[in-house]
Amino acid sequence: MKNKNRFFGVLLILGICFRVAACTQEEKQEEEKSGDSYTIYFLEDNTFHTREYLSDTEDSSELALELLSQMGLVNMSEIQNDNVFVNTLNVSNGVAYVYFNSAYSKMDNVYEVLFRASVVKTLSQLREVNYVYFYTNNKPLAYENGQVVGLMAESDFIADSDSELQNLAWSTVTLYFASAEGTGLVRKNIDVAYAKTVSLEKVIVEQLIQGPDDEDSLAVIPSQVKVLGTTVRNGICYVNLDSSFAEEKLGIPFELTIYSVVNSLCELNYINKVQFQINGESHTEVNGISFDQYFERNLDLVEEGI
Q1: What is the spatial distance between Cα 150 and Cα 184, in angstroms, rounded to a whole number?
Q2: I want to staple 174 with a disulfide (CB 3.0 to 4.6 A). Which of 68, 146, 241, 267 is the partner?
Q3: Distances from the Cα of 16 to the Cα of 13, 114, 231, 300, angstroms
Q4: 3-state secondary structure of 262
């Protein structure tokens, strides 16, 4: 009987040891997994994907470089190639300054906007990063017209949820707003994200209605105006607006309103002319201008590029 009790005692001790060893192993695994969690945004086939990444790196510049390394943007070899890589990076005064190699300028325009969104959303997770600023070939990143892209925040690439990024299209568009004096048009490049089910032409008109985001230019379309639809046929974009377009006034020449829309839409390489409609009707006249005609680009009204 004593031997039997001794046998069960040994089993009990062994069981405790096994449990302690198992707990120690689990704790060790948990320790290995410790660190702050970050979401890595990356692109495959022009589509956003995400995965989680843990890091206990505290230095903000080192952590930013570590996250970009997880995106495959840090070249660990001495070999130079045509891929886009980060040459240097530093975080200072709330801004992550990211210097890319010259290959950046060879990216397709649509892909480039997606790429920017993925980097900005990844780096904006750092507590010390409020904005991200891109350099390429040691020069500030700029649009084709020379306008510097400047500081970018996560809110510039916002979506209701990360999963919705996969259902968004991204594009850089050129919009024409009224100058601060209301005497001409000024050109601005902006990045827009929109549902893939919505046409880019409608997005452009709605961005004009939303108005500029600075004090250097004025809105060209009253905020009450609704876009009822846009259609493109044979290079002509038909813009159907509600009656408020004819009724509301902004205090600028109506000609500027007309050509802000026309010039903005004609920046798309598949649009040459624009016809306006009010509630589906083009046989109408607004402020002395007949809508029963096609409008072509008019750059004589453009005072400057911003």
Answers
A1: 25
A2: 267
A3: 5, 55, 75, 87
A4: helix
d(C-alpha 296, C-alpha 14), whole Å: 88
d(CA 104, CA 101): 6
Alpha helices (H) along the chain: 2-32, 60-70, 109-123, 200-210, 244-247, 254-266
Number of neighbours of residue 129 by Cβ within 10 angstroms: 20
Distances (CA, A) of 8 to 15, 16, 76, 102, 108: 10, 12, 58, 72, 72
| 143-146 long-range Cβ contacts below 8 angstroms, 24+ apart | 143/172, 143/189, 145/174, 145/187, 145/189, 145/305, 146/305
- CA dist 10 and 167 (Å) reads 62
Q: Which residues contact 31 (CB under 8 A, 6 or more apart)?
A: none
Between CA 87 and CA 167 the distance in angstroms is 32
pLDDT of residue 5: 45
pTM of the model: 0.58
- Report in angstroms the alpha-carbon separations of 23 from 16, 20, 106, 257: 10, 5, 53, 71
Instruction: Please count the other Cβ atoms lying within 10 Å of the Cβ belonging to residue 87.
Output: 15
Q: pLDDT tens, 280-294?
A: 998 888 888 999 999
d(CA 104, CA 110): 13
Which pLDDT belongs to residue 44? 76
